[in-house]
C-alpha cells in the first residue's frame, strides 16, 4: 500500500476514512440498482448522510485498530526496550541470569502476524542472551588459561570449566608428550587410562577432526564411564598450528547442542595456545633442572630438593639418607680413551645409578665425576645397602670403546639424618663427603 505519512496508524486512518467516504458516495447509486426510486436516494441530504456514516465507520475502525493492534505493538515496543536495557546490563556485569524468559520474553498468545513477531522477538532475545553467555564463558575461560603455566593446574581447571559450560557429566584432558598421550586431568571416569587406547581417540588425533560417538540409551560404557549412561561422547583434538597437543573428551547424558559445540570450538582455540605455552614452560623447567650430559638433576636443582627433604625430615622426625659417590681414577679414563669416552662413562654410571635407587629417591650430578643421592625415609643402614648395590652394579658395567672395553668402579660415602645431628643440609653433605674420602 502507498505510504502517505511516516506514521502507520495515520496512513491507516486516512485510507479507512477515505474508503468510508467513497462508500458513502457509492451507496446511493447502488440502492438505485436495488429498485429504490432515484428521487428518494439521489438527494444531497442522502449523500451527506451516507458519507457521514462512512466517516463514522472509518473512525470506529481506526479506534479498534489502535485499541487492539496498537496496544499489542506498544507491548512489543516496551518489551524490546526492557530487553535492550537488560542485555546492556548483561554486557556490563556478565550476569546472564538476568535475561530469563519472564523478564525479557513476550507472551505468544495469538496465531497471527503479531504472534509470529513475538516468536521472532523471543528467538532473537534468546540468541543474544546465548551469545552473551558464550562470550562470558569464553572470557572467564581465557582469563583462567592466561593465569596458569603449570600444566597440571592448567588442565585440571580447564576440565572443570569445560564440564561447567558444556553440562557434561564426565570428561578428561589428554596431553601428548614424548610421543604418547597421557591423562592430564579426569573427572567422572572409572578408568581414564583405558581411553588412550580407544580407536576413536586415535582417529581424532590422526585426522585432527572432532569425533562424536552417539550411544543408544541401553548402552553403558563399562570400565570407562561411571554412575550415568552417556548418550553422546565427544573426542575433540586440540591443535596448535596443525600439530595435535592433546584432546578433550566429554561425555553427556544428553546430546550436545549446537550452542555447546560452538562454545567448545571457541574454548579449544584458547586451550591450544595455553597448552603450547604450558608445555614449553614445562620443557624449560626440566631443562633448567637437568644436567645436559647425564639427564639427571643438576646441582642447583638437586640441592633445592635436598633442602626440601631435609626440612621435611626435621618436621616429621623421619630419617633421611644421603649418599655421595664418585668414579675412581676418572682422570685416567679421560687420558687413556679421550674425553668423549669419559662422557659416555658418566652417562652410563648415571643410568646405572637410576636403576639402583628406589622410586622417589633423588639423583643429582654434584660436580665433575661426583654424584649425590637423596634417600627419603632411609636410615644409615638402608643407605649403606643401596650404596653397596650401586657399587656392584657399576663394577659389573662394561663399556665398549673401539676394540677395547672400559670398566670403572666407584667409591661411596653414606650418612643419614638424624644419626649425625646435622643442623642443616650442608652439614649433612659434608658428613657424606667425609665418609666418601
Number of helices: 14
SSE string, helices as H and strands as E: HHHHHHEEHHEEEHHEHHEEHEEEH
Task: Give the neighbour order of strands across the main sheet.
Answer: 2-1-5-4-3
* Beta fraction: 15-25%
The level of helicity is 55-70%
Mean pLDDT: 80
User: What is the radius of gyration computed over CA atoms, rounded to a whole number of angstroms?
Assistant: 41 Å
- The rounded distance between the terminal residues' Cα atoms is 109 Å
Classify the secondary structure makeup into a structural class.
Answer: alpha+beta
Q: Sheet bearing the most strands, described?
A: 5 strands, antiparallel
What is the 3D shape? Answer: rod-shaped
Number of strand segments: 11
Q: Give start-end ranges of low-pLDDT stretches.
A: 218-226
Briefly say what this structure is.
The protein has 437 residues and is an alpha+beta fold. It is built from 14 helices and 11 strands.
Amino acid at each position: 500500500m502507498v505510504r502517505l505519512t511516516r506514521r502507520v496508524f495515520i496512513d491507516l486512518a486516512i485510507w479507512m476514512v477515505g474508503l468510508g467516504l467513497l462508500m458513502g458516495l457509492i451507496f446511493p447509486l447502488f440502492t438505485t440498482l436495488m429498485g429504490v426510486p432515484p428521487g428518494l436516494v439521489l438527494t444531497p441530504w442522502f449523500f451527506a448522510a451516507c458519507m457521514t456514516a462512512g466517516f463514522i465507520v472509518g473512525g470506529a475502525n481506526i479506534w479498534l485498530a489502535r485499541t487492539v493492534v496498537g496496544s499489542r505493538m506498544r507491548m512489543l515496543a516496551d518489551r524490546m526496550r526492557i530487553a535492550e536495557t537488560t542485555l546492556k546490563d548483561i554486557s556490563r556485569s556478565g550476569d546472564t541470569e538476568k535475561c530469563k524468559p519472564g523478564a525479557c520474553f513476550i507472551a505468544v498468545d495469538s496465531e497471527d502476524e503479531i504472534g509470529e513477531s513475538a516468536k521472532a522477538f523471543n528467538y532473537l532475545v534468546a540468541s543474544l542472551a546465548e551469545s552473551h553467555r558464550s562470550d562470558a564463558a569464553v572470557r572467564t575461560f581465557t582469563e583462567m588459561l592466561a593465569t596458569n603455566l603449570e600444566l597440571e593446574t592448567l588442565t585440571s581447571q580447564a576440565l572443570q570449566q569445560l564440564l561447567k559450560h558444556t553440562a557434561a557429566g564426565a570428561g578428561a584432558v589428554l596431553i601428548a608428550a614424548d610421543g604418547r598421550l597421557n591423562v592430564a586431568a579426569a573427572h567422572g571416569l572409572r578408568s581414564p587410562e583405558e581411553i588412550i587406547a580407544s580407536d576413536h581417540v586415535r582417529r581424532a588425533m590422526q585426522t585432527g577432526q572432532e569425533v562424536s560417538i552417539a550411544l543408544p540409551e541401553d548402552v553403558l560404557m563399562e570400565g570407562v564411564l561411571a554412575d550415568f549412561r552417556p548418550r553422546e561422547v565427544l573426542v575433540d583434538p586440540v591443535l596448535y598450528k596443525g600439530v595435535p597437543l592433546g584432546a578433550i573428551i566429554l561425555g553427556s547424558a544428553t546430546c550436545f547442542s549446537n550452542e555447546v559445540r560452538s562454545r567448545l570450538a571457541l574454548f579449544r582455540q584458547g586451550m591450544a595456545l595455553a597448552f603450547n605455552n604450558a608445555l614449553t614452560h614445562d620443557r624449560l623447567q626440566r631443562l633448567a633442572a637437568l644436567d645436559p650430559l647425564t639427564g639427571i638433576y643438576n646441582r642447583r636443582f638437586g640441592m633445592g630438593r635436598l633442602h626440601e627433604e631435609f626440612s621435611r625430615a626435621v618436621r616429621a622426625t623421619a630419617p633421611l639418607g644421603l649418599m655421595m659417590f664418585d668414579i675412581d681414577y676418572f682422570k685416567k679414563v679421560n687420558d687413556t680413551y679421550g674425553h668423549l669416552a669419559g662422557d659416555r662413562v658418566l652417562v652410563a654410571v648415571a643410568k646405572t645409578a637410576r636403576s639402583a635407587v628406589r622410586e622417589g629417591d633423588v639423583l643429582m650430578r654434584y660436580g665433575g665425576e661426583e654424584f649425590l643421592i637423596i634417600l627419603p625415609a632411609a636410615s644409615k643402614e638402608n643407605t649403606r645397602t643401596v650404596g653397596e648395590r650401586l657399587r656392584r652394579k657399576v663394577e659389573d658395567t662394561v663399556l665398549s670403546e673401539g676394540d677395547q672395553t672400559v670398566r670403572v668402579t666407584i667409591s661411596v660415602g653414606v650418612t643419614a639424618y638424624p644419626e649425625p645431628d646435622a643442623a642443616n643440609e650442608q652439614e649433612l653433605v659434608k658428613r657424606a663427603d667425609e665418609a666418601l674420602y
